[in-house]
Amino acid sequence: MAAAGWLRRAAAAAAPRLPSGLPLIPPPPPAPLAEAQSLVVPGLGAAVGPAMELMAVPKKKVSKYKKGLRNGPKALKPVPVIVRCRCCGRVKLPHFYCCSGERGNPSESSS
After folding, report:
1. Is 84 left (phi over 0), alpha (psi -120 to 50) or beta?
2. H helix and E strand count, the chain
3. Each residue's pLDDT tens digit in the chain (111 positions)?
4. CB under 8 A, 24+ apart: contacts of 62-69
5. What SS3 class is residue 84?
6. 3-state helix, strand, coil in the chain (%, to 5)
């Protein structure tokens, strides 16, 4: 009960007191916000609009070694060379055996 009395006295002290006889005038409504308000940033020296984009900034410099490890798989790969088989004429990769023909004359087929 003592707490309720203390709270009541604090609320009464915080309430604005006007001399009796004067009507209470409500404060004017706040001004409408403009569409493009600008924010002045001291470091930039110019007004920055509401669409100010903040970017991520790395904390430390990335070494050439780490950058190379990350970008290594992105390097260009050599294009495989396609050659024709000497015996049957079909296309194949170099150093691969062509099982579709035999060595010798392509017109003669034993199988």
Report:
1. beta
2. 2, 4
3. 566 777 777 777 766 666 666 667 777 887 776 655 566 666 655 555 556 678 899 999 999 999 999 999 999 888 888 888 888 888 888 888 887 666 555 555 554
4. none
5. strand
6. 20, 5, 70
Interatomic CA distance for residues 2 and 6, integer angstroms: 6
Q: Quote the pTM value.
A: 0.28
Amino acid sitting at position 5: G
- What distance, in Å, lies between the first and last C-alpha atoms of the chain? 111
Q: Using alpha carbons, select from 54, 19, 58, 25 the residue that is nearest to residue 39.
A: 54
Residues 48 and 39: beta-carbon distance below 8 Å: yes
- Between strands 39-40 and 47-48, the pairing is antiparallel
Token pair belonging to 9: 């006295």
